[in-house]
Design a protein that fits this description.
AAA+_ATPase; four-stranded antiparallel beta sheet; 12 strands; binds adenosine-5'-triphosphate; 3 domains; Rossmann fold; six-stranded mixed beta sheet; P-loop_NTPase; ABC transporter transmembrane region fold; alpha/beta
């Protein structure tokens, strides 16, 4: 927690907050002593000028105390709010640049809780720290010293009440502490169930699992409620116990104080002042115990936030930036995979092994393969969402690890497997691809992506896009995502299974449009697809199986030589289609099952 404080709090405002806190403590400690003098000297001896004089001093001291409190609160609030804002911003930024593996390791729900709930806990504790946490010990020690000066005998009352208070606080903390971490974990869990319920609501309904999901949420909700109730009840019990101890202490002080006054061993004013200090001592103790509960809870939050902030980046930018690709190359680039392998941290086997191939500007490489064969992993490696674990990926001879991610991403435009749209309008979504795009360029991209018709019909570029593009069909979402990819001027266009929700005719039109568009003709296009019809016109096709290349070449070549490719063809094309391809039918008849 202190590390976070050091990093996010500003020295001068914190110094001012503490300075005025000290002034407030001094004035608070001075007031009862002035009161005692006023009673003993002024009222006791009927000295009116003395009463006026001390009364004026009391007024000035009280005003000073009020002003100091005000300034302290101002700086404490400002600093803690600033800390919250900057911390939230940094956690969010870190998550935005997190590599895929780390993102999956944490999971979305805990990342949300850490950015919101945990940061708020820290924000609150720092506000308390700059006020109560430092004030309480100062007041405690100061009041004990002042009270001791007024009466040594009455101090014996604290010999009983302070150990009792300590016992109450320690017992309380021992019950509450272990439950604080559990509480944050349960908030994560409730977020997870809630998030899954929201995103999967249609699936849940279709499978008639509504009751099950409601029950699951109810259970998570109950667990959180139960733990929170136990913690808060335990913490709340402390207050009445402390109030009882405080009341008995006051009774004892008045009792023994009256005896001392009766024996002329103590003036009346000292008893009044002693009572005030006694209240301050016990109140400070109560505040300290409240802080003692708050700090470990915030410590848990601090650890959770630091886990995110200090997560080591796996994908690193080079210390010295290689020349940006866009400026170093006029038009032509070559993408080379040299014995590339990739393994996920926890995985038993490599997701990609020993991949070598080359694609040049203007060419289209299609990647086909079964589920889990490594297609998306390959695309992620090109965009450096992850780095290869062996071998290298080169752009015109430069290892992409020598390019900063920012530079690389300037030349790469991609559509992911799941079309992601942001809430806003069609125009704002296209601005993601090209922030200075003109309307004309937007319509051109929409037209290439075969999305212009429905966008025009439904309201044009100002057409609203709901969260996750919920107001569009799957195919429409994909077309809009493709339009966003195409509007970006890039040297590499990556489409990760982006055509899967399109019908055959639209798929064909879209590929034809990209291949004949002036802006995209010169670029390298890499298309991941499951459909033979999508890949067969590509210049080269890479067939993946269990992360290995089992075929590389043109459609005609693979149809003759690659059993895995033939198998995919056989599963997707009709006898007539295979017949039309002639060569394919003849080849299959030799070895594979009859068509
Ligand atoms: N975050 C991850 N951690 C561990 N293993 C992973 C992770 N993501 C993917 N894998 C594994 O890596 C392999 C390749 O996955 P990938 O997503 O690249 O396949 P794919 O060919 O794109 O599949 P699909 O066609 O179903 O999208 C799979 O065996 C998968 O289980």
């Amino acid at each position: 927690m202190l590390t976070i404080g050091r990093r996010y709090l500003q020295a001068w405002p914190v110094f001012l907050a503490l300075l005025f806190l000290v002034i407030q403590v001094i004035t608070n400690l001075a007031l009862p002593t002035i009161t005692a003098a006023l009673i003993n000297q002024g009222i006791g001896k009927h000295d009116l000028p003395y009463i006026w004089q001390k009364g004026a001093v009391m007024l000035v001291v009280a005003l000073l105390s009020w002003l100091s409190a005000l300034i302290n609160v101002y700086y404490a609030s400002k600093q803690s709010q600033l800390l919250g804002r900057k911390l939230r911003q940094d956690v969010f930024k870190k998550i935005m640049f997190m590599d895929n593996a780390a993102f999956h390791e944490f999971g979305d729900s805990t990342l949300i809780t850490r950015t919101t709930n945990d940061v708020t806990q820290l924000q609150n504790v720092f506000q308390t720290m700059l006020r109560m946490m430092l004030m309480a010990p100062m007041m405690l020690i100061g009041s004990i010293v002042m009270a001791f000066q007024l009466s040594h005998d009455l101090m014996l009352v604290f010999a009983v009440s302070l150990p009792l208070l300590t016992l109450a606080v320690v017992t309380n903390m021992m019950i509450a502490m272990p439950r604080f971490r559990a509480m944050q974990g349960l908030v994560d869990k409730i977020n997870l169930v809630f998030q899954q319920g929201l995103t999967g609501v249609r699936v849940i309904r279709a499978f008639n699992r509504d009751d099950f999901e409601v029950e699951k949420f109810d259970q998570a909700n109950r667990d959180l409620t139960h733990t929170t109730r136990v913690v808060l009840t335990t913490v709340a019990m402390l207050m009445p116990i402390m109030t009882v101890i405080l009341s008995f202490s006051n009774v004892a002080i008045v009792w023994f104080g009256a005896e001392l006054i009766g024996k002329n061993a103590m003036p009346m004013g000292n008893l009044v002042a002693f009572l005030t200090y006694a209240t301050q001592i016990l109140m400070s103790f109560m505040q300290l115990s409240a802080v003692a509960v708050m700090v470990p809870r915030a410590q848990v939050s601090a650890m959770r936030v630091r886990e995110v902030l200090e997560r080591k980046d796996v994908v690193l930018d080079p210390k010295i930036e290689t020349k940006p690709l866009s400026s170093s190359q006029e038009g032509h680039v070559t993408l080379t995979f040299d014995q590339v392998a990739f393994k996920f941290d926890e995985a038993k086997r490599e997701a990609l092994s020993d991949l070598s191939f080359e694609v040049k500007s203007g060419q289209t490489l299609a990647i086909i393969g079964g589920t889990g064969s490594g297609k998306s992993t390959l695309i992620s490696l090109i965009a450096r969402l992850m780095d290869v674990t062996h071998g290298g990926i080169f752009l015109s001879g430069t290892d992409i690890r020598q390019l900063s991610q920012h530079t690389l991403h300037q030349d790469v435009s991609m559509t992911q497997q799941k079309a992601v749209l942001f809430s806003g309008t069609v125009r704002s979504n296209l601005y993601f691809g090209k922030p200075d795009a003109s309307d004309e360029e937007m319509w051109e991209a929409l037209s290439l992506a075969q999305a212009d018709d429905f966008v025009r019909e439904q309201g044009g570029l100002a057409l609203e896009v709901e969260q996750n593009g919920a107001n569009f069909s799957g195919g429409q979402r994909q077309r809009l995502a493709i339009a966003r990819t195409l509007i970006k001027p890039a040297k590499l266009y990556l489409f990760d299974d982006s055509f899967s929700a399109l019908d055959f005719a639209t798929d064909a039109k879209l590929r034809h449009a990209i291949n004949t568009s002036n802006r995209h003709q010169e670029a390298i296009k890499i298309i991941v697809a499951q459909r033979i019809a999508t890949v067969m016109s590509a210049d080269q096709i890479l067939v993946l199986e269990n992360g290995r290349c089992v075929g590389y070449g043109t459609h005609q070549m693979l149809a003759k030589t690659c059993p895995q490719y033939q198998e995919i063809m056989r599963s997707q094309l009709s006898d007539q289609d295979l017949e039309k391809m002639g060569v394919a039918h003849a080849e299959f008849s030799k070895g594979g099952p009859s068509l």
